[in-house]
Amino acid sequence: MSVFQDDVAAFADDYVLGLMSPTEADLFEALIAADPALSAHVARLRDQLLPLDLSAEAMALPADFSSRVGAIIAQTPQDAAPAPTPMSSDPTMIPVAANMPRAPRRWLTGLAASLVLGLALGFGGAMQRPVPAPQVVAVLLDNEGQPRAVIEDYGNETAQIRFVSDVDVPQGFSIQAWTLPSAEMGPQSLGVLDGPRAAALVGPELPGPADAQLYEITLEPEGGSPTGRPTGPVIAKGLAAAQNI
């Protein structure tokens, strides 16, 4: 996969998780509309995160929600034409409204560069090879049933982990990811992290991941378990859901 393809795949994660600003989302939606392969990748990511969505408790809207929205609409000019935005010959200069929270300039520049490159390539060849899909996805919950992380296992000695809430890691400790391919094999380490961050996990050669396979993360001494087996408290765990691939 080219650098451009890798960048687009990384942006898709942020888009699906709702981490983009409105300006970034508009740019990325232009890519989605022009590239069927990217559109399919985004749809697949949404399906993978569906178990996480379903694990969240429904929250009622505030009692005054409708009146507050109505008041905002009433105070918003309806006929005001948008002010013209100065254009630049530099395609990486992204116009941002003065009242819009600004994302890091490097982020916007990178996404704009991908968009420009995609236009130059005609999008048809932008993602010639499909983005790999995980064989299983596991949503890891803590003892209170709150989601902490999502692990995607690709079945080729690699997996990805993303944290969806903060995890306290005391000084001198690490987070270690595990899976249980079978009772005979016992828990197998997928990797050690120095903190709750998204990362690629490269574990040992294991059988292909299966539906309902156990995944968990534990708190271990800095650098990982000294025994090769989980020794610390379990931060979160969950059973994998096989993906239709």
Give the DSSP E fraction (strand runs of 2 or more residues): 15-25%
Outline, from the CA principal axes?
A: globular
Q: Please tell me how large the radius of gyration is.
A: 22 Å
Q: Please, how many helices?
A: 6
SS elements, strand count: 8
Order of helices and strands: HHHHHHEEEEEEEE
How many domain modules?
Answer: 2
The biggest beta sheet reads: 8 strands, antiparallel
Work out the helicity level: 25-40%
Question: Can you describe this structure?
Answer:
This protein is an alpha+beta fold. The chain folds into 2 domains: 119 residues, no CATH class; 107 residues, Immunoglobulin-like (Sandwich), CATH 2.60.40. It contains 6 helices and 8 strands, in the order ααααααββββββββ. Strands 5-4-7-8-1-2-3-6 form an 8-stranded antiparallel sheet. The longest helix has 17 residues. About 14% of the residues have low confidence.
Chain-wise SSE layout:
Blueprint: H1 3-16, H2 22-34, H3 36-48, H4 50-55, H5 65-75, H6 105-121, E1 136-141, E2 147-153, E3 158-163, E4 173-180, E5 188-193, E6 199-202, E7 214-221, E8 234-242
Antiparallel strand pairs: 1-2, 1-8, 2-3, 3-6, 4-5, 4-7, 7-8
Helix pairs in contact: 1-3, 1-6, 2-3, 2-6
